[in-house]
Design a protein that fits this description.
The chain is an all-alpha fold. It is 75% helix and 3% strand. The termini are far apart.
Length: 155
């Protein structure tokens, strides 16, 4: 799952760069133009990641859900993923991971990214379920799945 997301994000970088670069090539390159180019790049990134998360939330579970909560949950998860990716990049640029961990610094970075991605993915899935319940579009179990209700039993 996470390898597919990483691959999608890397493949999305080329059209994202082309979209932002196209704006800068048609203008004289002022601050407003740079701001517009950054908006296009971030919008394309969030849109492509949102589509991937929505596809995962729609096809991965053995459940029947309507498309609206899946799209909203995918968009919310994509925003969280993009924010976290930006923060993680800024923290790693300003840190001295190589001096702390030595040669295993890249393995630590990979584990950190996987940990972060799994938390965001789980949080997005829970948000999607809660949002579906809030708008009365319950996610129903599929053919082989069973809905579990948890309750406290008093002794």
């Amino acid at each position: 799952v996470f390898g597919g997301l990483l691959l999608a994000d890397l493949q999305g970088a080329a059209p994202e760069q082309a979209a932002g670069g196209g704006v800068l090539q048609t203008t004289n390159g002022g601050f407003l133009d740079w701001l517009i180019a950054q908006f296009y790049k971030r919008s394309f990134s969030i849109l492509s990641i949102s589509v991937w998360f929505s596809l995962l939330f729609r096809t991965l579970p053995n459940a029947k859900s309507s498309i609206k909560p899946v799209l909203v949950g995918g968009f919310f998860t994509a925003i969280l993923f993009t924010i976290g990716k930006y923060i993680l990049g800024r923290v790693l640029i300003n840190s001295s991971i190589d001096s702390i961990f030595g040669a295993s610094g890249s393995a630590v970075l990979l584990l950190l990214f996987v940990f972060y991605s799994s938390l965001i993915f789980y949080f997005g899935a829970v948000f999607t379920k809660i949002y579906a319940t809030a708008i009365n579009q319950e996610i129903k179990p599929g053919f082989y799945a069973v809905k579990v209700n948890t309750s406290e039993v008093k002794s």
